[in-house]
Amino acid sequence: MSAPLAGLRVVELTHMVMGPTCGLVLGDLGADVVKVEPAPEGDNTRRLLGSGMGFFAMYNRNKKSLAIDLKTERGKAALLKLVDRADIFVENFRPGAMDRMGFGYEALSGRNPRLIYVSHKGFQDGPYQDRTALDEVVQMMGGLAYMTGPPGQPLRAGASLNDVMGGMFGAIGVLSAVIERQRTGRGQRVVSSLFENTVFLMGQHMAMHAMTGKKLNPMSVRTPAWGVYDIFHTADGEQIFIGIVTDTQWEAACRAFGFDDLAADPRFRTNNDRVRGREWLIPALAERFGRQTRAALAEACETCGLPFAPIARPDELFDDPHLNASGGLLPVTLPDGKATRLPALPVAMDGARMPLRRDSPTIGADGREVLAEAGLAPAEIEALVADGIVVVREDRR
Fold first, then answer.
1. Tens digit of pLDDT for each residue in 332-360?
2. What is the SS3 assignment for 344?
3. Active site residues
4. CA nearest neighbour of 173 among 359, 284, 43, 18
5. What does the alpha-carbon distance between residue 292 and residue 297 come to, in Å, rounded to a whole number?
6. Is the pLDDT of residue 363 over 60?
7. For residue 115, what are the CA distances in angstroms to 111, 239, 371?
8. 3-state secondary structure of 366
9. pTM of the predicted structure, to 2 decimals
10. Helix (H), strand (E) at residue 191
11. 183 burial class (0-12, 13-18, 19+ CB within 10 angstroms)?
């Protein structure tokens, strides 16, 4: 299968997660993505510890690296030549930073009117536009942490949810702008923002409040829409989520588990009856499910078509049989040379998953190639390398 975005040139001046995710999506779909990093040390994200250790390895595959000193006029001039030939420019720095560097939208679109310029920001234009935002910040102020944690204990989600989603929205905006450019011949600026995508996630809860006028409870203590939608402990000390969301599923579950008494109980006849009867129903199910192993419950649920899920840790996903059979994990080489597998783009096109074409690059691994494609002569490139303005590490490690 030919790559859907083959032929599109992307210059990515980003760090952390949000902007790199946009570049990842475009790169996985076949665009030629050049990650621009500061010389000589490269993107600071490469050196994060703790929960940020996996950022660079996950969000920078299928990209080339150009390590260049943009504090120098020669470095800026070289990058501008690259931008002049680009289709898309991706950035996620604080408002005003690109303008001060000479790489703001007005400056670049003036040179390249076909350029699609996507900025990943904390906020859209408005009173908050100059604030510094992080995923955790917008989870707190956008209602997500409130809805995730127990009452009085706001809790961030267990992944960089808004950063990743912000990058995805940025990519959606880019693809829309590419289509529009086919009609108009001109590029445009796209802005994706953390706070607003958090609020987008909260839309269902805002609609509920508008409909009921009642204060919203966190998801941990909510009244669910379905009678059975819970985590149960099993006889072997494990946990499993089981959902029963239709009356047909309820009948199938009662048959599969031999719960004839519950099937005949008029208190649980319909889903709404089961919602109203959760005070009695859930403890009864917890006691019965607690006599069985997780594997036995999972097998019964799968046989009768119930939604179910073992409670898994991220490290257990490496051995997930479905992911391994469906191409959901791509074989990659980490920056330290270790081989592993990381999640593929969750999209199939004509039955094929998007492949790995390049591991996440070492600092400046593609500098000479990228600058030659931008039109710099070999002597110019070697002069930039000799003067330390461009750093090239061709060992790719």
1. 999 889 999 999 999 999 999 999 999 99
2. coil
3. 163
4. 18
5. 7
6. yes
7. 9, 51, 18
8. coil
9. 0.95
10. strand 189-193
11. exposed
What string of H, E and C letters represents the secondary structure of 265-291?
CHHHCCHHHHHHCHHHHHHHHHHHHCC
Identify the CA nearest to 389 among candidates 64, 80, 78. Answer: 78
Q: What pLDDT was estimated at residue 396? A: 47
Percent of the chain with pLDDT over 90: 97
> Hey, what amino acid is at 260?
D
The pLDDT of residue 261 is above 70:
yes
Structure tokens at 262: 């519950």
Using a 10 angstrom Cβ sphere, with 0-12 exposed, 13-18 middle and 19 or more buried, the burial of residue 360 is: buried
Q: Which helix (H) or strand (E) holds 367?
A: helix 367-373
**Taking Cα atoms as reference points, which of 237, 224, 238 lies closest to residue 310?**
238
pLDDT band at 5 (very low <50, low <70, confident <90, very high): very high
Place of tokens 């500098």: 367
pLDDT > 70: percent of the chain = 99
| CATH H-level superfamily of 224-313 | formyl-coa transferase, domain 3 (3.30.1540.10)
Cα-based angle 108, 109, 110 (whole degrees, multiple of 5): 90
CA distances from 343 to 58, 172, 247, 314, 320 (A): 8, 20, 35, 11, 12
Mean pLDDT of 42-53: 95
Q: How confident is the model at residue 139 (pLDDT cuts 50, 70, 90)?
A: very high
CATH superfamily label, 9-201+327-391 = Crotonobetainyl-coa:carnitine coa-transferase; domain 1 (3.40.50.10540)
Which pair of tokens denotes residue 30? 């076949």
Token pair listed for 114 = 């076909």
135: enclosing H helix or E strand: helix 135-141
Residue 203 CB coordination number (10 Å)? 9
Domain ranges of the chain: 9-201+327-391, 224-313
At residue 397, does pLDDT exceed 50? no
pLDDT attached to residue 393: 82
Over residues 62-71, the mean pLDDT reads 98
